[in-house]
Design brief:
By secondary structure, this protein is an alpha/beta fold. It has a domain of 306 residues: TIM Barrel (Alpha-Beta Barrel). Helix content is 33%, strand content 19%. It contains 19 helices and 21 strands. Helix 8 links the parallel strand 10 and strand 11.
Length: 504
């Protein structure tokens, strides 16, 4: 994975078309901004029950987006990341359809997790209540099969997403076939989606248990044999993230978004500094994603509540309420039961609206992200400082769609002219080109009202200095002629431009 800013996007929601159109956009108006691109699910279908995360056929590109040839051509220009959804498959998949018709005589019977596969002798109450799930209730669904049987199936997320047994022969074959398809198409980084829930074992939480770690290690070995890297996507207690990072190529820094928002809201960087001192260096950093703004990653351990989080419960409450306030109540309409979105750990809102559309604070947040340890990833709506899509939310009733706008070519062109977006592009180019970011990260000592983040590679350095009380920042960095100091872009359109052009 190149040490440059990465883009994460749905193909059709940014390009207005397919993979070829996205390729043209990345080599046209967005030329030079991204070292790689993470394509959110592009499988058949892209418009199922969970925006592609419920694949009917994980080995076929939705024909509305193009084909594997289009993907290979994109991969010749950019590092490609794709999701391998190991936990579940659509209830409309041919494999499940066959199982529904033929039951245990189906060749795919071993692929799907039923209640009795995990609890062959039945489960005690204590075993059921200790199962961890990101949504209310048990991860089980009664389903009448086509052969007339009624089965109790594992469904961690929705009844349309049937959990698979990744350790069965059929499960191993299924996952390996997808991995091989990705490799042939030029995908070089696999994101293991929802892998924390992939292994179920009686008497455990069924989330990130020792067998899960072993499965991740085994999968990573298979990917490495093909020359591919693995990115693990897990929302969990921050100490767990540090441990997970020691065992994999890359992890997400999901603690960063709430901590950056909290820092700006409260004008207090102490919790952020604590995290930056210990956060994984092999991280992919984010501030916004296709899901909501997570809070579980800074909270107490859900399995052992006595283990405190990076933020106290009252601080998390304040964080969430401030997002609701700054978004004019729009995020409240898209979060939780209000919008059929019952994930317990996220607030649905664009990052720009979470900050109250304050351009200077938005660019300050991005600067902190770009200086944090790891490789930055920018979500497509965040790239364009996108606003909440209340129309899409109203049409679909799906909370996360507030942050999943479908951009037209005209909208992209107009947004790229906005000063806040030009300021962000300036920061992206700086992060991509300054040689200091190939070196080591440090948190120099500073006062409580300051946040200083620094990168050094030999004689090269880049430093972000933030007055947390005033919410003002400046850059200090090495150049051909010595050292330069410049204020951060603030979105007013009058700040000095082209940071990258002044480096060397």
């Amino acid at each position: 994975m190149r040490n440059q800013v990465q883009l994460i996007t749905y193909v059709d929601r940014l390009s207005g078309g397919g993979i070829a159109e996205l390729h043209s956009l990345l080599q046209g108006p967005l030329e030079g901004l991204f070292g790689g691109v993470h394509l959110l699910p592009f499988f058949v279908p892209i418009d199922g029950a969970d925006a592609g995360f419920d694949p009917i056929d994980h080995t076929r590109i939705d024909p509305r987006l193009g084909d594997w040839g289009d993907l290979r051509r994109l991969g010749e220009s950019f590092d490609l990341t794709a999701d391998l959804i190991v936990n579940h498959v659509s209830a409309l998949s041919p494999q499940f359809e066959d199982f529904s018709r033929h039951g245990e005589s189906s060749e795919y019977a071993g692929l799907f997790l039923t209640y009795d596969r995990v609890f062959p002798a039945g489960a005690r109450e204590s075993e059921l209540v200790c199962i961890y799930r990101p949504r209310p209730g048990l991860p089980l669904t009664y389903m009448k099969m086509q052969n007339g049987q009624v089965r109790l199936l594992w469904t961690t997320f929705t009844p349309q997403q049937i959990d698979i047994d990744v350790r069965s022969p059929q499960g191993r074959t299924y996952v390996s076939s997808i991995l091989q398809k990705f490799h042939a198409a030029g995908v070089r980084l696999i994101r293991l989606d929802a892998v924390g829930y992939a292994i179920k074992k009686a008497g455990t939480s069924c989330f990130m248990i020792p067998e899960t770690y072993q499965y991740i290690s085994d999968f990573t070995g298979e990917a490495h044999a093909l020359g591919m890297e693995v990115l693990v996507e897990i929302h969990s207690y921050y100490v767990d993230q540090v441990e997970i990072a020691k065992r994999v190529d890359r992890v997400y820094d999901f603690a960063l978004p709430p901590l950056v928002l909290y820092t700006i809201f409260r004008r207090n960087a102490q919790a952020l500094k604590k995290w930056l001192a210990i956060s994984p260096r092999n991280a992919v950093t984010v501030l916004d994603t296709h899901d909501g703004i997570g809070v579980i990653d800074v909270g107490a351990d859900a399995r052992e509540p006595d283990r405190p989080g990076l933020l106290a419960p009252e601080d998390i409450d304040l964080l969430v309420e401030t997002i609701h306030e700054r978004s004019g109540g729009e995020s409240r309409k898209a979060t939780g039961a209000a919008a059929s979105n019952l994930d317990l750990y996220q607030v649905n809102c664009t990052l720009y609206d979470a900050l109250g559309r304050r351009d200077g604070e938005y660019l300050l947040a991005r600067a902190i992200q770009f200086f944090a340890p790891g490789i930055p990833q920018v979500y497509y709506t965040g790239l364009l400082a996108g606003r909440n899509d209340m129309d899409l939310l109203a049409r679909t009733g799906e909370g996360r769609n507030i942050n999943r706008h479908y951009y037209t070519a005209a909208e992209i062109e107009a947004n790229l002219r906005r000063p806040v977006v030009r300021g962000l592009i300036d920061l992206i180019r700086f992060r991509n080109t300054h040689p200091a970011f190939s070196g080591d990260f440090a948190l120099p000592q500073c006062s409580e009202r300051e946040l200083i983040m620094e990168w050094r590679a030999g004689a090269e350095f880049a430093r972000l200095e933030v007055d947390v009380q005033a919410l003002q920042g400046q850059l200090a960095y090495s150049t051909r002629s010595g050292t330069e100091r410049r204020p951060l872009p603030n979105g007013t359109g009058v700040e000095a431009a082209d940071l990258a052009g002044r480096i060397r």
